[in-house]
């Protein structure tokens, strides 16, 4: 018998922890517009993200490296990549943005992850035959 009267048949568990934080974070976002006016193209969408950062965090925020990896103009959905240290700045700037071309708007952060693959599928949208 081992310590504290336990047998040797007890399973051993191993915990694995990432040794360093992820370099980037990925966000799946959707822009919601108040009315059916013009939709931003990819360049305008990126500019809107930069504008949101500038309005909340100034020029330092606007300089935060953010990449638009995918953008669907039809659904106004995108996947953004930001350095992990800038995640909170980006998320807060997007959340507080309220206007696009003098129209009410809102960014919705649908998913976030340090792993791009985690955003590739959403079990809530899964359709079973």
Automatic annotation (TrEMBL):
Q: Record's Gene Ontology CC terms?
A: multimeric ribonuclease P complex; nucleolus
One Pfam short name = RNase_P_Rpp14
> InterPro entries per the record?
Pop5/Rpp14/Rnp2-like, Rnp2-like_sf
Query: Which segments cross the bilayer?
Result: none
Highest rank taxon of the organism: Eukaryota
Identify the keywords attached in UniProt to this record, alphabetized: tRNA processing
Biological process (GO) annotations held by this record are:
tRNA 5'-leader removal
Report a single Gene Ontology molecular function. Answer: ribonuclease P RNA binding
Similarity section? Belongs to the eukaryotic/archaeal RNase P protein component 2 family.
Tell me the PANTHER family matching this sequence: RIBONUCLEASE P PROTEIN SUBUNIT P14
Q: What is this protein called?
A: RPP14 protein
Organism ancestry: Eukaryota, Metazoa, Chordata, Craniata, Vertebrata
């Amino acid at each position: 018998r081992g310590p504290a009267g336990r047998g040797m048949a007890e399973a051993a568990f191993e915990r694995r922890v990432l040794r360093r934080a992820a370099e980037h974070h990925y966000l799946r976002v959707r822009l919601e517009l108040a009315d059916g006016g013009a939709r931003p193209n990819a360049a305008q969408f990126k500019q809107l993200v930069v504008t949101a950062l500038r309005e909340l965090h100034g020029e330092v925020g606007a300089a935060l490296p953010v990449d638009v990896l995918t953008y669907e103009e039809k659904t106004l959905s995108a996947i953004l990549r930001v350095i992990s240290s800038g995640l909170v700045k980006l998320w807060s700037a997007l959340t507080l943005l309220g206007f696009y071309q003098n129209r009410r708007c809102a960014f919705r952060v649908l998913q976030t992850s340090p792993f791009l693959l985690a955003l590739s599928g959403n079990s809530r949208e899964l359709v079973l035959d």
